[in-house]
Amino acid sequence: ATELNATKNGWERLNRHHGAICGGLTSDELLEGTSPAEAVSTAGLGAWAEALASAALTEKADWAFEALERMAYNAMPACISGDELLAFQRVNTLGEKVDDAVCFSVADDHAARALVRLTRGYAALASSVVTARADGASINLYMPGRYAVTVDDELLILTISAAAKGVTITVHVRQEVRCALRLRMPAWSRNTEVMVNGADNHEDVKNGMMTFDRTWHDGDVIALNFEPEIKVADGHHQGKYILRGPVVMVLPAEENWQKAFVSVGVEDNRVVAVLDQVKEWKKKGNVPADIPVLPETAGAPEKQQLVPYAKTAARIALFPGRKQA
Length: 325
Description:
The protein is of the alpha+beta class and 325 residues long. It is built from four helices and 26 strands. Strand 6 and strand 7 (136-139) form a beta hairpin. Helix 2 (42-55) runs antiparallel to helix 3 (62-78), helix 2 runs parallel beside helix 4 and helix 3 (62-78) crosses helix 4.
């Protein structure tokens, strides 16, 4: 990815040809395949995380943070199963393992490079969450953890913790510090509520960032409540995939997995899709074939609950679009 000089235009062009449903390019490392049915290389995934983290350091780089978020919530955790690192993954799969024999151009040292590249990719992701600025710091991603930056020779530690509807950011300083904290407002949230020490905020958003320029004390808390948007995106072969915020929502692939997309909604805070049975959708081993283009369907559409991409090893993430009657 670094050698490809992955600027915004380059990344978007590759997405159009290779798909990025889970955040990783769904093809081999050499980009020989053009179908999302091809495997995602863990080595390639780590390399792209590094490249996107570098691109995110430039101005107007929200697209790079969005790509990193997609990776961080989907492809990166999905390539780790217990204590085992999976060298490849597929967006549509009926089992955990992906046989090297069905992947393009698998190098002999791929497994070793996958571990090294993914480790470097996670390090690059972590370094992108909070970045230092001349007047303070920017909080770009909301991955739980402790992050440290230096402001006017004072150490500023920010602890990001998951909350019911979003995250909290706790400020830790030895003595009060005057600086600007810039918070990225994710495009996937329809409405983001921000409170500082329990008080509603009324700061303006500029270039996708909300800035608090004030004196910070030890124990100050910023709370962000997100309202993730449900989005249906177009994929390969006129297929559809579903996002809730940055998270890809999938159908756990049980015995009856051959489904076409009809519609999706939220019921009791659960993502529920209306799906129709596809008459014919073949598979080879534990790998579904390419999705059929606007296939014929049979039976009455049914509601089925979807789960986050990384929560299941057997999943359907890209659905055929249904042929209209």
